[in-house]
Design goal:
This protein has helices at about 15-30, 75-90, 95-105, 115-120, 140-155, 160-165, 175-190, 210-215, and strands at about 45-50, 60-65, 70-75, 165-170, 195, 200. It is of the alpha/beta class. The strands form 2 sheets. A 4-stranded mixed beta sheet has the order 3-2-4-5. α2 crosses α5 (about 140-155). The longest helix is centred in the N-terminal third of the chain and has 17 residues, at about 15-30. The radius of gyration is 26 Å and the shape is extended.
């Protein structure tokens, strides 16, 4: 008796469903990925062996080699409160529409008195052409005002948590007196702790830190 022949089936596989899933996953990761906050201007920070990651929602003070100071309000949940507070305390006279436009800027890099006029300009001004926030004059250190408004916006919360997100990133060629002016503004607002942003580098072999890391099973950077 002959063996029954099984009908041949097509070996073609319909990949439509698989492609749909792949594109859905790709779309999800693109939308869910948190992009690095824009920096006011590129600076070459000093190097260190520390590899501790900076908080995502940071308040970043950038100091350029020319001595210009910029402020990045990275916590979107508090940005509107900060801008409203400084508008009130310094009498800037900004409308709700102007405050909203100011909130869309990636960073602050101009004197308080120039904000209203700058917002009236449709074209964005390149950061290298901005004056920066005035800090050199003790009587008119406007970083004091910005940090006061930041303090007011975070009032009621943990001071330690606020200090954790205060970052200072200075160019390697920046002069110390400008950095001292920024520290003065922090001190005036009872902010005595902050973090310095540096470029990470490997721990030199044979150094005390290298030996300690090796003993604890951590080789490379700490």
């Amino acid at each position: 008796m002959g063996r029954a022949k099984l009908p041949r089936k097509s070996t073609n596989i319909d990949m439509t469903a698989m492609c749909d899933v792949a594109f859905l996953l790709l779309s999800f990761f693109i939308l869910a990925t948190k992009q690095k906050p824009p920096e006011a201007i590129t600076v070459t920070a000093p190097s260190s062996v520390s590899s501790k990651a900076a908080p995502e929602k940071s308040i970043l003070i950038t100091l350029t080699k020319e001595g210009k100071v910029f402020l990045l309000l990275g916590d979107e949940t508090k940005k509107a409160d900060i801008l409203r507070d400084i508008n009130t305390t310094r009498g800037l006279g900004l409308s709700d529409a102007e405050l909203k436009k100011l909130g869309k800027l990636g960073f602050i890099g101009m004197p308080l008195g120039a904000i209203k006029g700058m917002l009236a300009i449709d074209q964005a001004i390149p950061p290298e052409k901005l004056e920066g926030i005035p800090v050199k004059d003790t009587l008119n250190n406007e970083m004091v005002d910005w940090l006061r408004s930041i303090n007011n916006a975070y009032a009621g919360g943990s001071q330690r948590a606020l200090e954790e997100i205060i970052l200072i990133k200075g160019d390697n060629l920046a002069k110390y007196p400008i950095f001292k002016d920024i520290k003065y503004a922090l001190k005036k607002n009872n902010m005595f702790k902050f973090r310095i942003v540096t470029n990470s580098e490997t721990v030199p072999q044979g150094s005390e830190l290298f030996i300690r890391n090796k003993a604890t099973g951590k080789i490379g950077t700490e």
